[in-house]
C-alpha cells in the first residue's frame, strides 16, 4: 500500500500552480489588441459572405425554389460583406501603426485575409459556375481553386519576404478578391470570365508593384469601397438603373486592375532607362 505524505503537494496540484503561473506571466504582446479585434471582424465578414452565398443563392437553386430578387439580395449581401472585410483590413493596419499591436497581429491578419479574400471569392466563383446558365461547374471550380491557391501563395510570400516600403509585390488580396467578384458580376460569356479570373489570380502572385493604401490613397480606397457598396445596394433593391450602375462599377474595378500593372510596368521601364542613361553619362569624359 502506498502512503502519501500530507505535507507533500499532489502532482496535479503542482501542475495547476504551474499553469496559473504561466497564465499570469503571459506577455501582454500575446493578448488581443484593438487592431486584432478589427482583424477578427474581417474574418467574420468573410465567413458570413460564404453563409449568404450558400443559403441565399446555392441552396434555393439546388432545391428549385430560387427567386430572382432573393438571390440578388443574398449575392449583394455576400459581396457587401467582402467589401466590409476590406474596410476592416484597411483600418486594422492603420490602427496597428498608431496603437499597440500584439505579436499575433500578422498571423491573424493572414488567416483572416485567407477567409475573406481567398475562400469567400473562390466559393462565390464556384456557386456562379453552378447557377449560371452558360457556365460549367467543373471548369469554374478549377478557376476557383486557382484563385484560392493564388491568395495562399501570396500571403505566404508576404510573410517571408521583404519589399520596398510603400508598395506591395503583386496585386493585394482584397483588391484581387473584389476584381474577381467584379468579373463575375459583369455577366460576360463563360470563357472570357474564366480567363479574366485566372488572369487576376496570376496578378496576385506576380511581381508587379502596387502602392499601399496610405494617406490620400487610403481615403480614395475607402471612398471607392463606399461607392461600390452604394452600387450593390441599388442593384439589390432593383432601383431603376441599378443593374447598369452595378456593371459600370464592376467595369471600373476591372479597368483599374488592368491599368495599375500597366502604369507600374511603364514606370519601371522608364526608371531602368534613366539609370542606364545616367550610367552612360557618368562614363563619358
From TrEMBL:
EC number: 2.7.8.8
GO BP annotations, alphabetical order: phospholipid biosynthetic process
TM annotation in the entry: 40-63, 75-94, 114-132, 139-156, 176-205, 217-237, 249-266
Keyword Membrane: yes
Class in the EC hierarchy, top level: transferase
UniProt xrefs under InterPro entries: CDP-diaglyc--ser_O-PTrfase, CDP-OH_P_trans, CDP-OH_PTrfase_TM_dom, CDP_ALCOHOL_P_TRANSF_CS
Matches recorded under Gene3D superfamilies: 1.20.120.1760
PROSITE patterns reported for this sequence: CDP_ALCOHOL_P_TRANSF (PS00379)
Domain of life: Bacteria
Catalytic reaction(s) noted: a CDP-1,2-diacyl-sn-glycerol + L-serine = a 1,2-diacyl-sn-glycero-3-phospho-L-serine + CMP + H(+)
Gene Ontology molecular functions: CDP-diacylglycerol-serine O-phosphatidyltransferase activity
Keyword Phosphoprotein applies: no
Name listed for the protein in its UniProt record: CDP-diacylglycerol--serine O-phosphatidyltransferase
Species, as recorded: Actinacidiphila oryziradicis
Organism lineage string: Bacteria, Bacillati, Actinomycetota, Actinomycetes, Kitasatosporales
Amino acid at each position: 500500500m502506498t502512503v502519501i505524505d500530507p505535507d507533500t503537494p499532489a502532482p496535479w496540484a503542482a501542475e495547476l500552480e504551474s499553469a496559473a503561473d504561466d497564465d499570469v506571466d503571459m506577455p501582454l504582446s500575446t493578448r488581443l489588441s484593438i487592431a486584432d479585434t478589427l482583424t477578427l471582424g474581417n474574418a467574420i465578414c468573410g465567413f458570413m459572405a460564404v453563409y449568404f452565398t450558400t443559403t441565399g443563392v446555392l441552396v434555393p437553386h439546388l432545391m428549385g425554389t430560387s427567386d430572382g430578387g432573393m438571390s440578388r439580395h443574398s449575392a449583394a449581401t455576400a459581396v457587401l460583406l467582402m467589401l466590409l472585410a476590406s474596410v476592416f483590413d484597411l483600418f486594422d493596419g492603420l490602427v496597428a501603426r498608431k496603437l499597440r499591436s500584439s505579436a499575433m497581429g500578422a498571423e491573424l491578419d493572414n488567416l483572416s485575409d485567407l477567409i475573406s479574400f481567398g475562400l469567400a471569392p473562390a466559393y462565390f466563383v464556384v456557386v456562379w459556375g453552378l447557377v449560371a446558365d452558360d457556365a460549367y461547374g467543373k471548369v469554374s471550380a478549377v478557376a476557383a481553386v486557382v484563385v484560392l491557391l493564388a491568395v495562399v501563395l501570396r500571403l505566404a510570400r508576404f510573410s517571408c519576404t521583404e519589399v520596398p516600403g510603400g508598395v506591395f509585390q503583386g496585386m493585394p488580396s482584397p483588391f484581387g478578391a473584389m476584381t474577381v467578384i467584379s468579373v463575375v458580376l459583369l455577366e460576360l460569356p463563360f470563357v472570357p470570365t474564366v480567363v479574366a479570373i485566372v488572369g487576376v489570380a496570376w496578378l496576385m502572385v506576380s511581381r508587379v508593384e502596387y502602392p499601399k493604401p496610405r494617406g490620400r490613397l487610403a481615403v480614395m480606397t475607402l471612398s471607392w469601397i463606399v461607392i461600390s457598396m452604394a452600387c450593390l445596394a441599388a442593384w439589390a433593391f432593383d432601383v431603376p438603373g441599378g443593374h447598369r450602375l452595378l456593371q459600370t462599377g464592376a467595369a471600373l474595378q476591372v479597368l483599374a486592375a488592368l491599368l495599375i500593372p500597366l502604369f507600374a510596368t511603364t514606370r519601371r521601364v522608364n526608371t531602368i532607362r534613366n539609370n542606364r542613361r545616367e550610367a552612360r553619362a557618368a562614363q563619358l569624359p
